[in-house]
Each structure stands twice: as C-alpha cells, then as structure tokens.
Q: What sequence folds into this?
C-alpha cells in the first residue's frame, strides 16, 4: 500500500513538472501512430538588449559628466591612481578610460555645468 502511494506521488510530481514546462511554450508533433506528442520548448537565454544598452549609455553619460566637471587633467590623475589598485579597481579604470564619445559629450555639457 505504501509503495502505491510513493509511485502515485512520483507520477504526480512528474506530471506537475511537465505541466510547468509546457506552460512556458511547447511544440506539437504527430507520431507515426497518430498520437500528438507535446514537447516543451527549450529555455533559451535571452540577453536583455535594452537593459545592456541603457547601462552602456548611463556609463557613457556618467563618464562625460565626470570628465566635464573634473577636467581632463584631474580625471586622468584619478584614473591613473585607480589603475594602480586592486583588480576590481583596475577593471573600473579600464571601463572609465576616456573614449571619443565621452570626450564629445563632455565638451557638449561642459559649458552647461560651468
């Protein structure tokens, strides 16, 4: 009697798991014997393109703001001290290095800040 309950619980868990997988999407296929078989779609890793783009734009705007407010000499001095730090600080210095886009934006917002 106990074995029947264990088997039943295992079948219920398996069916619930399959139902959850099918609720995220499925493909239907007819087998040779005419039975329609549903298979769950594989979960694909989707890159949040919009979020990554917004993050890059925010970093670019932040770099431009710092460059415009500190000035190029002070900004470079702070970057060089950051580049001598821990590996995390070095990665931050690499990300925050001056590029043409941030330099252009800094030149555009510089007069507004002054």
A:
């Amino acid at each position: 009697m106990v074995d029947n309950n264990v088997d039943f619980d295992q079948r219920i868990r398996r069916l619930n798991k399959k139902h959850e997988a099918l609720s995220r999407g499925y493909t239907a296929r007819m087998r040779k014997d005419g039975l329609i078989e549903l298979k769950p779609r594989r979960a694909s890793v989707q890159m949040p393109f919009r979020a990554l783009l917004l993050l890059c734009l925010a970093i670019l705007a932040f770099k431009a703001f710092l460059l415009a407010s500190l000035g190029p000499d002070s900004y470079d001095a702070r970057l060089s001290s950051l580049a001598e730090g821990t590996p995390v600080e070095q990665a931050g210095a690499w990300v925050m290095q001056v590029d043409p886009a941030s330099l252009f934006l800094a030149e555009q917002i510089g007069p507004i800040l002054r």
Q: What stands out?
A: The first helix runs from residue 2 to 23. The two ends are 83 Å apart (CA to CA). The chain is about 70% helix and 10% strand.
